[in-house]
Amino acid sequence: MKILSDILKKYKYDLVNGSEQTSISGIAFDSRKVEEGTLFVAIKGAENDGHKFINNAIKAGATAIICEDTSGIEAKNATVISVQNSRDALAWVAAAWYNYPSDTMKVIGITGTNGKTTTATMLYNVFRELGYPCGLFSTVKILINGQQMNATHTTPDPLAIQGTMAEMRDAGCEYCFMEVSSHAVDQDRVKYIDFAAGVFTNITQDHLDYHKTFKNYIEAKQKFFTHLSKDAIAIYNADDKNGSIMVQNTKAQCISYSLKKPSDHKAKILKKEMDGMMLHLEQTQMWTMLTGFFNAYNLMAVYSTAIQFYNDSQELLRVISKQKPVRGRFEHIISANGTHGIIDYAHTPDAVENVLSTVDEVRTGNEQLIVIIGAGGNRDKTKRPIMAQKACRYADTVIFTSDNPRNEDPEAIIQDMKTGIPIEFTGREFTIESREEAIKVAVGLAGAGDIIVIAGKGHETYQEVKGVRHHFDDREILMKHFK
Ligand SMILES: CC(=O)N[C@H]1[C@@H](OP(=O)(O)OP(=O)(O)OC[C@H]2O[C@@H](n3ccc(=O)[nH]c3=O)[C@H](O)[C@@H]2O)O[C@H](CO)[C@@H](O)[C@@H]1O[C@H](C)C(=O)N[C@@H](C)C(=O)N[C@H](CCC(=O)O)C(=O)O
Ligand SMILES: Nc1ncnc2c1ncn2[C@@H]1O[C@H](COP(=O)(O)OP(=O)(O)OP(=O)(O)O)[C@@H](O)[C@H]1O
Ligand SMILES: N[C@H](CCC[C@H](N)C(=O)O)C(=O)O
Ligand SMILES: [Mg+2]
Q1: Which of 3.40.50.720, 1.10.760.10, 3.90.220.20, 3.40.1390.10 is the CATH number of 2-97?
Q2: Ligand 3 atom closest to the CA of 458, numbered from 1
Q3: Going by CATH, does the domain composed of 331-482 fall within 3.90.190.20?
Q4: Is the C-beta atom of 458 inside 6 A of ligand 2?
Q5: Residue 128 near residue 120, CB atoms below 8 Å
Q6: Atom of ligand 3 nearest to the CA of 456
Q7: Average pLDDT in the 119-124 region?
Q8: Domain spans, the chain
Q9: What is 298-324 written as a DSSP string?
Q10: CA nearest neighbour of 392 among 423, 347, 358
Q11: Is 118's C-beta closer than 6 angstroms to any atom of ligand 2?
Q12: At 262, is the secondary structure helix, strand, or coil?
């Protein structure tokens, strides 16, 4: 139990009804999760307005309400607090409820269109190997010193973040690595977290369904760096067109990394192969099991961040060079007869370009490249034809298939994609809506040495159709047909 005035101390609000001395047994922003004594925070969302559920929350036992609009509230005995921005207030009370866990550890937030999971996961693994207790928030999973919890979002809601971070604190974590999505910044999910560092990987087209314009998308990511404190460090990719823009308003100390320009940390790719590459970094040659220039950027992000907190460069490079690819990111499987399968989470035009151009660089040129690709439903529609166009640019054969159709018609999503097929490619594509069938056909077409890239779902173990998640795992299906 906590007293309302304690969790609102120093926060700007108006008391509309009741008393700030009200006791609170918990916090909820979903009326369906309210219990006796809960503080209910009403949020205006994309689909619903939490204000409509305030009276339900009170009936369910809420003793206090935080909201922006107090009209229509049948308060009776409930305390009603009016604030300017409920999402901001939710982030504030969530941090206070769990006694500010981010104050007790170094929290490092990683943002960017692509590379967040790869970078955050590698940082977590590197610091664990260096002997530090650590936590990780990622798209794939949440980890506390090796103990796994399921992830529902790339960056969860403020209550889930603060609650999990409190568990990290209780487990003695010294570091917490967290993917920070643009949705999370826009919705204040990470506000009032005391970040020790922020990392920017890159920004290219995605999420225009949500942000509407690329400019808004850039601004959402920039806001994350603008909110860092003067004691924090902002580490950014200087080769990205918007790298310096990200950090232009930050008070944090800025550190840059690059493969092309003068910067604080610089690397060079010496040799690239299917299963790794040789990098030159800090006067040292380092072999890594990750491949592709995009992974050289991820490794630079890892090194440039880690060296801020752990200053033995050689030891750091030794541990970084031992890192394996992250699940579903350029995951390479070879069949008994020598066909190569690559499972990758490329679900943006830039990621498709990067993965396929990398395959193109490491292939001999005599083998076939078959790409299986789809696009998610209820997400940015404008990226669909561009993803298709990129696939056709490098592949010999493209099989268009279903990803997570969500509430859209999978056939219509595929049709959107196919408008991006260049005329000269016509006739080299198939449409096989069933993803399993698409994988089976690709395996049937491929011989020894040929390469099948399965893009878009990476680590995912489900296919989401009309709100239901059916078990589906690209890796499992590929292995089955590889036998
Ligand atoms: C568009 C979006 O980001 N939506 C997220 C947002 O929901 P919302 O605030 O818009 O919620 P809403 O459904 O409109 O409801 C408004 C309010 O009414 C409340 N409500 C609703 C019904 C009811 O009966 N009672 C009630 O109180 C809701 O709990 C909510 O507080 O806030 C919720 C809680 O944090 C999220 O679960 C939800 O994620 C949805 C499921 C989602 O799909 N989000 C994706 C797009 C997302 O966030 N993706 C990014 C990563 C993307 C990437 O980097 O690739 C992520 O971080 O995962
Ligand atoms: N630094 C990078 N630059 C560009 N593309 C990348 C980079 N790193 C990875 N990719 C591509 O993007 C895909 C997704 O990578 P990753 O999961 O690390 O990104 P993410 O930012 O966490 O994605 P999400 O937004 O879905 O959480 C990879 O499978 C690969 O195709
Ligand atoms: N975090 C990303 C994942 C996309 C993965 C792809 N398989 C899809 O369903 O679109 C998103 O929500 O946009
Ligand atoms: Mg991710």
Answers
A1: 3.40.1390.10
A2: 7
A3: yes
A4: yes
A5: no
A6: 7
A7: 98
A8: 2-97, 101-321, 331-482
A9: HHHHHHHHHHHH---HHHHHHHHHTPP
A10: 423
A11: yes
A12: coil
Q: Which residue is associated with the tokens 């990226």? A: 383
The CATH number corresponding to 101-321 among 3.40.980.10, 3.20.20.70, 3.40.1190.10, 3.40.50.150 equals 3.40.1190.10
pLDDT in tens, 338-351: 999 999 999 999 99
Show contacts of 441-445: CB within 8 Å, 24+ apart. 441/399, 442/370, 442/372, 442/397, 442/399, 443/335, 443/339, 443/478, 443/481, 443/482, 445/368, 445/370, 445/397
Confidence of residue 364 (pLDDT cuts 50, 70, 90): confident
pTM: 0.96
Residue 226 tokens, joined: 């603008």
State which of 111, 118, 344 you would mutate to test the pocket of ligand 2, scoring each by most atoms of that ligand within 8 A of its C-beta: 118
Cα(305) to ligand 1 centroid in Å equals 30
Helix H or strand E segment including 108? strand 106-111
**How far apart (Å, rounded) are the C-alpha atoms in residues 255 and 240?**
14
Q: In this structure, which residue's CA is closest to atom 16 in ligand 2? A: 115
Indicate the pLDDT class of residue 128, thresholds 50, 70 and 90. very high
CA distance 454 to 474: 7
What beta strand segments (E) does 340-460 contain? 340-344, 369-373, 397-400, 429-431, 451-455
Q: What is the pLDDT of residues 69-117, one digit of tens each?
A: 998 888 778 999 999 999 999 999 999 999 999 999 999 999 999 999 9
pLDDT in tens, 413-445: 999 999 999 999 999 999 999 999 999 999 999
ipTM tops 0.90: yes
